[in-house]
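Design job #97: recover the sequence.
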């Protein structure tokens, strides 16, 4: 069963951990579905999938479905995606996105300001330039030169309210070398919001179309109240997203720095290439994060979700609470990923 861990491996991993570490054996069964299929992170992924499904059900390309899903969620006012999302600690919303197709073509933008659809800009980078990643002012200039409109630099109502409350607690004022101060001084981006929800509802999307081709994309505003200029895993190919048309596709959501440190989604794909199911591969990758620093892992969330060429899908997370949505001809459902800490 993919939800069980080999006893010897579990003992080795537990030896690295503190006594409160425990493994939750509750895992999803191996799941197959007929293509096409679209999978997106979090509960809102169900609506994202609906946007992409309009293309997939017409025998359209997975890449187009991914972009359609991103356009939908980038229009919705939420904490963590699009220009309506929460800002960095200086009060500016900056967006990261990436996209990758079945031919290993990829594009990304990071630190993009005042542009509504960063994933579409990333696709334009992929399709019209020899580059993979554009950042900051350069990414914005590229977007404007390619017909994207400059949006007003203002916070949405919910974002302004959240930012005002955060400023009261953190008493943040820009200061020279503030990054050298302790991370617990209130100025660091919180790993979880006040209501207990994780500060990283990144929208990651992967799809397998009727032609058997895979594509994926990620769009996010990054962690709320982050240092201005911070980029997580969402714009990094091989970290927040990886697509290999021979093996599968994977995406992640969570504390991006931890995903970057292990090249997370690329790791998932390579494990699938070596015979693991998507859930097993996601689980092994999560365990690698935990092994690196078990104590730190208890305080954060990272989740991976993957699909292989046969339409088998699965996910795994550090903590309880990571969900993902699946849409195919057979189902339209939200799944709760199995997790390590109980």
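Job complete. Output follows.
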């Amino acid at each position: 069963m993919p939800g069980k861990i080999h006893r010897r491996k579990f003992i080795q991993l537990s030896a690295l951990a503190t006594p409160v570490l425990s493994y939750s054996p509750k895992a999803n069964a191996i799941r197959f579905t007929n293509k096409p299929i679209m999978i997106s992170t979090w509960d809102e992924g169900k609506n994202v999938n609906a946007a992409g499904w309009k293309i997939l059900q017409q025998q359209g390309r997975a890449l187009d479905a991914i972009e359609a899903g991103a356009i939908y969620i980038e229009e919705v006012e939420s904490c963590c995606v699009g220009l309506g999302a929460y800002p960095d600690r200086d009060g500016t919303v900056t967006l990261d996105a990436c996209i990758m197709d079945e031919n290993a073509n990829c594009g990304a933008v990071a630190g993009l300001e005042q542009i509504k659809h960063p994933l579409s800009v990333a696709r334009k980078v992929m399709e019209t330039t020899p580059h993979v990643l554009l950042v900051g002012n350069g990414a914005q200039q590229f977007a404007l030169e390619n017909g994207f409109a400059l949006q007003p630099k203002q916070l949405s109502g919910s974002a302004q309210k959240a930012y005002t409350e955060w400023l009261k607690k953190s008493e943040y004022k820009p200061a020279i070398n503030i990054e050298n101060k302790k991370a617990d001084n209130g100025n660091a981006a919180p790993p979880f919001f006040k209501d207990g929800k994780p500060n990283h509802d990144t929208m990651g999307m992967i799809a397998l179309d009727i032609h058997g081709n895979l594509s994926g994309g990620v769009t996010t505003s990054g962690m709320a109240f982050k240092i201005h200029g911070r980029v997580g895993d969402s714009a990094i190919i091989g970290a927040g997203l990886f697509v290999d048309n021979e093996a599968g596709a994977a995406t992640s959501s969570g504390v991006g720095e931890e995903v970057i440190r292990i090249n997370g989604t690329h790791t998932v794909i390579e494990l699938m290439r070596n015979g693991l199911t998507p859930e097993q591969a996601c689980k092994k990758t999560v365990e690698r994060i935990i092994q690196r620093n078990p104590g730190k892992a208890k305080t954060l969330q990272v989740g991976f979700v993957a699909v292989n060429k046969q339409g088998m899908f699965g996910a795994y997370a550090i903590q309880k609470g990571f969900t993902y949505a699946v849409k195919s001809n057979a189902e339209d459902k939200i799944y709760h990923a199995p997790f390590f800490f109980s």
